[in-house]
């Protein structure tokens, strides 16, 4: 695809801005390390020269992006620089994005403010008519052209009518009185043509995916007794699979270029949020949402909504360990199954090895499926894809990474936590526990969105249903499950462990193990004092979902790129596994060119639980700091491990979920996140992350006159176990896409 020259005409100015930022950073570093006066003066002169060159480009109209940032949005949110770990002055913001626009007429300004506010979709038709009247009354002025330009944006974003947008933009582009809006309209027309191609690519991918899935269904439904027919249909499936893979590879190359073209047209983050329809279109502008970082509180919240469930429970988890937490959860589900609740439960075959094993492990789960109101599935067992793994190794790696609870169609919990002691025990009782995060949400609309996300992964053919034994369950495990739920419930209420007067040998042995584990967690006794929605916010919430490999939905990556491109001031990323994909890195570089401050909080070798992802980050971190000059990297370094996966954009949008900053989350695994539009919620989330940053170390580099990068402080200063292996793996960067 060929992008229009107008979209790329500003590359020279962008290059000058990159030099301007680099010179600024070099000057700052020299001052910070008390460099000799002559060196500081030389760097100051270089900085002033680079700034003059950039400002000269701005003055001649060559600056990027070509589109004026003229969105009428809410007031800016004050975002102080983090000071917990050696804060420094933020990088300069390019003049093109900070200079005040010409004063527009109040009638136009007021209409645009309403149009791009939360009520925009509801008043779009009325606002368009108002703008049309304004444009007619000011037909020979630049403000008339601006009104028509905004009409085109409203057609595109709020009405989904690209044809109407193209018609209006074509008129503006040909108007001799339109001034700068004639050029903007021309550039936007080229962007809309690229968007048309993007949409066509999506249609092509959907068609090839449908053909592939139909071929797979035909193969699966053929009995092994008809081996020739089954082999023939397998061959047909492989052909459709390869056809889809070729189209997907071509699309991904196009997508990277398209996002670069589209970036200047992405609105501010609050408008990006408004424009995203949410999973299945459901939305709630008044959802009650509580942020939960405390591990004990996270378990209390789950225990309360599950214990009080009345009609239905949906659960999806990547990991469910067979410790006291996993056993108590299954015991609680068994109680609810006996009470007649509709229960659907799915675990991942790779993450959950104990409960999903056919020998012994499934015995506990089979206690649940003896009830007709219960369905339990294993996501994508490895045997399902062994025959096609030679064509794409990721087929046997694809996992359901979702962590979802939906209760009674009203209460929901999603976030980074799996089901295991490390996620729910506080650090005073377990120093190496995870630092993780969830959101508890009370909203029927949000529960509906999450139920849709659940169903889209629960129903496909590649999921394996766990069923009871043909002649009934040989081993009866219900007594052990009942003992687990009873002792957990009693202990967290501060009443000590459960010690029955009489029990069979196997139950007694299991209970002894459960109680020994619980007694270690001395701070986990405050369930009855916990407030389910204490400190909650009322805010618009939307669920953003992503299917596993080859599924049709990949909303999370698309929306994160738009949030990054829509950020004007600050991007905060907290994530345990940072292996930047091409798309994410390109978007962060664009943000840096706009002068957006970027904070990344992640693990160091000393705190990580993933040697492979840390190895890839080890290979990249110096280059990231050099090529994204407004970025700062902070890392945990103690016994505690970071596992939270959170984002804050411009202090307005907070995102909490399961999505890692790596290729597996972008391309392979299913993921789910909640986006919350609330300055109060975003402030709370940001403050939690800044608190973690204050307990972390900052990675720093130095860049010499030849552009060579050396580490001032980095992962080598925070070593973990098997550093030699991590460094060896860091050379194998071709493995990035499967780590």
Please write out the topology:
Elements: H1 5-8, H2 11-32, H3 37-59, H4 95-98, H5 106-115, H6 120-137, H7 142-157, H8 162-173, H9 180-221, H10 227-262, H11 269-275, E1 284-292, H12 295-307, E2 312-317, H13 324-338, E3 342-348, H14 362-369, E4 374-379, E5 404-407, E6 411-415, H15 421-424, E7 434-435, E8 438-442, H16 444-458, E9 464-465, H17 478-492, H18 505-518, E10 537-546, H19 555-566, E11 570-574, H20 582-593, E12 597-603, H21 611-627, E13 631-636, E14 641-642, E15 646-649, E16 653-657, H22 663-668, E17 671-677, H23 679-694, E18 697-703, E19 709-713, H24 723-729
Parallel strand pairs: 2-3, 3-4, 7-14, 11-12, 12-13
Antiparallel strand pairs: 1-8, 1-10, 2-5, 4-9, 5-6, 6-8, 10-17, 11-15, 13-18, 15-16, 16-17, 18-19
Helix pairs in contact: 2-3, 5-6, 6-7, 7-8, 7-9, 8-9, 9-10, 13-14, 13-17, 17-18, 19-20, 21-24
What would you note in describing this structure?
This is PLD phosphodiesterase domain-containing protein. It holds the Pfam family PLDc_2. Residues 76-111 are annotated as: Disordered. This protein has 24 helices and 19 strands. The chain is of the alpha+beta class. Among the domains are: 5-98, no CATH class; 106-178; 189-265; 284-529, Endonuclease Chain A (Endonuclease, Chain A, 2-Layer Sandwich), CATH 3.30.870.10. The strands form 2 sheets. The chain has a 17-stranded mixed beta sheet, with helices on both faces. Strands 7-14 form a two-stranded parallel ribbon. β3, α14 (362-369) and β4 form a beta-alpha-beta unit. α19 runs parallel beside α20 (582-593). It is globular and about 90 Å long. The model is unreliable at 1-11, 58-70 and 84-101 (pLDDT under 50).
């Amino acid at each position: 695809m060929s992008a229009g020259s107008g979209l790329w005409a500003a590359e020279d100015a962008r290059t000058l801005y990159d030099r301007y930022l680099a010179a600024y950073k070099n000057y700052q570093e020299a001052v910070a390390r008390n460099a000799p006066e002559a060196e500081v003066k030389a760097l100051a002169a270089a900085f002033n020269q680079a700034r003059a060159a950039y400002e000269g480009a701005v003055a001649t109209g060559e600056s990027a992006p070509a589109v004026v940032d003229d969105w009428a949005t809410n007031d800016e949110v004050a975002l102080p620089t983090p000071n917990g770990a050696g804060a420094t002055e933020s990088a300069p913001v390019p003049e093109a994005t900070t200079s005040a626009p010409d004063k527009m007429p109040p009638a136009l300004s007021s209409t645009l403010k309403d149009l791009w506010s939360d009520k925009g979709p509801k008043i779009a038709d009325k606002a368009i008519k108002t703008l049309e009247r304004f444009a007619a009354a000011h037909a020979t002025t630049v403000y008339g052209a601006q009104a028509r330009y905004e009409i085109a944006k409203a057609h595109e974003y709020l009405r989904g009518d690209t044809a109407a947008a193209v018609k209006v933009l074509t008129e503006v582009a040909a108007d001799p009185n339109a001034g700068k809006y004639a050029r903007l309209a021309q550039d936007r027309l080229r962007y809309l043509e690229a968007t048309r191609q993007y949409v066509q690519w999506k249609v092509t991918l959907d068609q090839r995916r449908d053909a592939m899935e139909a071929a797979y269904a035909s193969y699966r439904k053929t009995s092994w007794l008809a081996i020739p027919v089954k082999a023939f249909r397998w061959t047909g499936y492989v052909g459709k699979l390869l056809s889809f893979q070729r189209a997907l590879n071509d699309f991904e190359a196009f997508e990277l270029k398209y996002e670069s073209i589209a970036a200047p047209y992405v609105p501010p983050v609050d408008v990006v949020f408004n424009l995203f329809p949410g999973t299945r279109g459901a939305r709630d502008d008044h959802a009650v949402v509580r942020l939960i970082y405390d591990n004990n509180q996270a378990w209390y919240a789950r225990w309360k909504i599950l214990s009080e469930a009345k009609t239905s429970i949906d659960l999806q988890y990547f990991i469910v360990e067979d410790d006291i937490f996993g056993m108590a959860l299954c015991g609680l589900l068994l109680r609810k199954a006996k009470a007649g609740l509709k229960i659907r439960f799915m675990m991942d075959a790779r993450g959950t090895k104990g409960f999903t094993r056919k020998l012994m492990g499934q015995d506990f789960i089979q206690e649940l499926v003896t009830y007709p109101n219960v369905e339990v599935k294993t996501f994508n067992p490895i045997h399902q894809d062994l025959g096609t793994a030679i064509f794409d190794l990721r087929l046997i790696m694809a996992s359901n990474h979702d962590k979802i609870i939906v209760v009674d169609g009203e209460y929901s919990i999603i976030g980074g936590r799996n089901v295991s002691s490390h996620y729910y025990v506080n650090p005073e009782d377990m120093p190496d526990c995870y630092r993780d995060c969830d959101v508890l949400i009370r909203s029927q609309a949000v529960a509906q969105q999450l139920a849709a996300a659940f169903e889209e992964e629960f129903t496909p053919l590649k999921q394996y249903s766990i069923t009871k034994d043909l002649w009934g369950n040989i081993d009866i495990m219900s007594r052990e499950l009942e003992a687990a739920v009873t002792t957990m419930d009693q202990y967290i209420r501060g009443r000590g462990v459960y010690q029955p007067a009489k029990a069979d040998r196997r139950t007694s042995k299991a209970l002894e193990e459960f109680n020994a584990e619980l007694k270690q967690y001395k701070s986990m006794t405050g369930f009855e004092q916990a407030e389910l929605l204490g400190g909650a916010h009322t805010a618009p919430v939307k669920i953003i979902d992503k299917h596993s490999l080859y599924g049709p939905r990949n909303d999370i990556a698309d929306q994160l790129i738009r949030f990054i491109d829509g950020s004007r001031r600050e991007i905060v990323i907290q994530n345990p596994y940072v292996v930047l994909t091409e798309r994410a890195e390109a978007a962060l570089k664009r943000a840096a060119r706009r002068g957006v401050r970027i904070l990344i909080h992640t693990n160091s070798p000393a705190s990580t639980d993933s040697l492979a992802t840390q190895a890839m980050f080890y290979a990249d971190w110096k280059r990231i700091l050099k090529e994204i000059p407004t970025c700062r990297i902070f890392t945990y370094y103690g016994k505690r491990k970071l596992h939270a996966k959170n984002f804050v954009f411009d202090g307005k949008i907070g995102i909490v979920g399961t999505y890692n900053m790596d290729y597996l989350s972008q391309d392979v695994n299913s993921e789910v996140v909640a986006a919350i539009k609330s300055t109060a919620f975003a402030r709370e989330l940001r403050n939690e992350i800044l608190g973690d940053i204050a307990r972390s170390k900052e990675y720093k580099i130095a860049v010499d006159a030849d552009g060579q990068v050396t580490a001032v402080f980095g992962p080598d200063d925070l070593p973990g176990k098997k550093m030699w292996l991590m460094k060896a793996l860091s050379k194998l960067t071709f493995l990035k896409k499967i780590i």
